[in-house]
Amino acid sequence: MSIPSSSVTAQDLSNVLRVADLSASNTLGLSCRASHVFDLQDLAQLPLVSELARQFGAPLVLGSGSNLILPAELSRPVVRVGLTGIKLVEATPQAWLIDVAGGESWHGWVAHALAQGWEGLENLALIPGTVGASPVQNIGAYGVELDSRIHSVTAWHIPTAQMHTFSRAECGFSYRDSRFKRDGLGVWLIVSVRFALPRPWQPVMTYPDLAGHSVLSQLDSQTVSAQQIFDAVCEIRQQKLPDPNVLGNAGSFFKNPVVTAELQQRLKQQFPMLVSYPQQDGRFKLAAGWLIDQCGWKGRRLGAVGVHDRQALVLVNHGGAQAKDILED
Question: How far apart are CA 184 and CA 163, in angstroms?
């Protein structure tokens, strides 16, 4: 990938900046007016992102605005990533290698991959957000973690106006974490992700919701298709999670806490119905949704904001909410 020239001027930047209403650019539907918004559509514009940071401070890199709480007035600069494109790089006996631009819809990419016969992402269907945001959080669902499907990540280092490509190991992935997240806001803008989708494909159906699904439970690894897993995941998510186009929400907003085996055993003795999952390092992941539910917050509403009545991990906007309503409540 070619690196754009970094010789830009303040005048270049002023020609593309604008004031914008971001109320429709976050899935919670919170009212937000931003004073310095830049829509990134082309790699040649990347130096402008660094110039934006130099003049106005570290920018907020914005994809589809899921898992995000925006204030009513946003003074920090915003870069909305609109980079698109999907390209098959190589097909090896071990994997399909595909480059996907950071601005592509995550679910759109998963559906496209499946249609092309590039299997392996079906468990991650219907997750809101963009491809560029996915490595930051190291998204995962229904038994599959994103880092197991990534070959490398190409990102623009905003402070130095330089492009870098990181191998999977160099991304520093862990549970819902990565170097891109740990380095803080306004440091990295993920330009593209190279996926390595395994060949031959092996289904992942160990997650309880999938193992107990009415269709999948009748099938095994020899008879199930990736499309059937995709359809089941979409069905389960649609039953549990509200559509942000109907009810503003921030998706599964809370991170499952990971605790020692000793603490898990103590909690299990006190709360026999505790939902937890063993981890490879000997620790246990506790189900945050179950914990929130036990505290009586599932379905609870305080004014315009609340917790979804079918999934305690989800914050919802019943209409007219602002960031302060969520943060104060």
Answer: 17
pLDDT score of 2: 46
- Reported as a single tens digit per residue, the pLDDT across 117-136 is 999 999 999 999 999 999 99
Q: Helix or strand or coil: residue 91?
A: strand
Q: Strand pairing partners for 40?
A: 81
* Whole-angstrom distance, CA of residue 11 vs CA of residue 18: 13
Maximal C-alpha separation, the chain: 65
Residue with tokens 């009545």: 309
For the residues of 107-166, what is the DSSP string, one character each?
HHHHHHHHHTT--S-GGGTT--SBTTTHHHHT-EETTEEGGGGEEEEEEEETTTTEEEEE
Residues 158 and 154: their CA atoms lie apart, in Å, by 13
CA-to-CA dists, residue 173 to 104, 168, 187, 215, angstroms = 21, 8, 17, 33
CA–CA distance from 217 to each of 160, 209, 284, 324 (Å)? Answer: 52, 10, 26, 44
Q: What is the average pLDDT across 247-259? A: 90
Query: Which residue type sits at 204?
Result: V
Question: Contacts for 163-172 with beta carbons within 8 Å, 24 or more apart?
Answer: 163/1, 163/3, 163/46, 163/191, 165/1, 171/135, 171/147
**Spatial separation of the C-alpha atoms in residues 49 and 75, rounded to whole Å:** 16
Cβ atoms of residues 272 and 160 within 8 Å: no
Q: Which residues, 6 or more positions from 270, have their beta carbon under 8 angstroms from its beta carbon?
A: none
Two tokens at 244?
Answer: 């942000």
Alpha helices in 168-314 (DSSP H): 179-182, 208-211, 226-240, 261-270, 288-294
